[in-house]
Inverse folding.
């Protein structure tokens, strides 16, 4: 159920009728019983990349893919895997395969034991079919302090990663790894995304974690959110998707929704000019600097 909103970058008024349309789309997907996994090429068309906004024309477009429970929790026993399904894992891989580069925070790299992306012949073939290189996209990890050089991110990969870090963190990067270094002790995400764009990485697929997602939202750098809603309630023991107090509301436009099994797959685009600087960090979220969680 993917409506045509016309120009994806134009600000859109979300009137009551707009909310009614979103409700109708969700209800329609359920009533029609469209619960089978759509073909890959159909999904690729549904999840085609938005064009850069005027404000971000010289930086890479950023799409985040997150999974959350009905009450907004993002982890089961510290990891996100327990919230997903086979369809969620399939979409996760497909969104990776549509990207030029994968952006992830160092905390998630450690918690999820990230290695590099490895493609089957089928996945390499569909990347070629979609006009992309058959080689796996690199992972760009955001870290202020650097990573263990024995991390699978460096030792178990086909495509070398990119490290987005500070001058202090750059000293912890193994030789031969591409590094984007900020000018001071704070990771500059905006500058890093502009550097990625200049080097041919136009489409960035972000996989979190929550701290990185919060920073992107607060700085107005997240263009699209693909949110899988898992049929679970987790209560207060799970980290929220955006563990920060934002300085205001960030408005989004529903761009599509489909159902597979009991999981709801939604796609939202951020309305132009919508950003909300962090106003405090009650959940321990700090900027990406030398003392930051990543």
């Amino acid at each position: 159920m993917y409506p045509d909103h016309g120009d994806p970058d134009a600000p859109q008024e979300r009137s009551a009728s707009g909310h009614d349309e979103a409700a109708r789309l969700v209800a329609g997907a359920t009533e029609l019983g469209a619960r089978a996994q759509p073909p890959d090429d159909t999904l690729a068309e549904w999840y085609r990349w938005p064009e850069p906004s005027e404000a971000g024309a010289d930086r890479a477009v950023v799409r985040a893919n997150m999974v959350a429970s009905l009450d907004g929790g993002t982890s089961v026993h510290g990891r996100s895997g327990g919230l997903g399904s086979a369809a969620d894992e399939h979409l996760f891989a497909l969104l990776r395969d549509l990207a030029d580069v994968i952006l992830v925070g160092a905390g998630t790299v450690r918690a999820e034991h990230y290695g590099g992306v490895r493609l089957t012949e089928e996945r390499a073939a569909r990347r070629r079919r979609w006009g992309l290189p058959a080689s796996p996209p690199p992972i760009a990890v955001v870290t202020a302090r650097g990573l263990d050089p024995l991390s699978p991110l460096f030792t178990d990969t086909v495509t070398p990663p990119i490290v987005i870090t500070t001058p202090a963190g750059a000293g912890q990067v193994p030789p031969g790894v591409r590094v984007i270094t900020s000018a001071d002790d704070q990771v500059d995400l905006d500058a890093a995304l502009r550097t990625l764009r200049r080097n041919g990485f136009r489409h960035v697929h972000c996989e979190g974690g929550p701290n990185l997602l919060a920073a992107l939202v607060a700085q107005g750098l997240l263009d699209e959110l693909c949110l899988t809603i898992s049929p679970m309630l987790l209560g207060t023991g799970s980290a929220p998707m955006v563990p920060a107090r934002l300085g205001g509301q960030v408005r989004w436009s529903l761009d599509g929704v489909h159902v597979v099994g009991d999981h709801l797959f939604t796609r939202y685009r951020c309305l132009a000019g919508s950003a909300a600087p962090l106003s405090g960090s009650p959940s321990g979220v700090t900027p990406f600097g030398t003392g930051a969680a990543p």
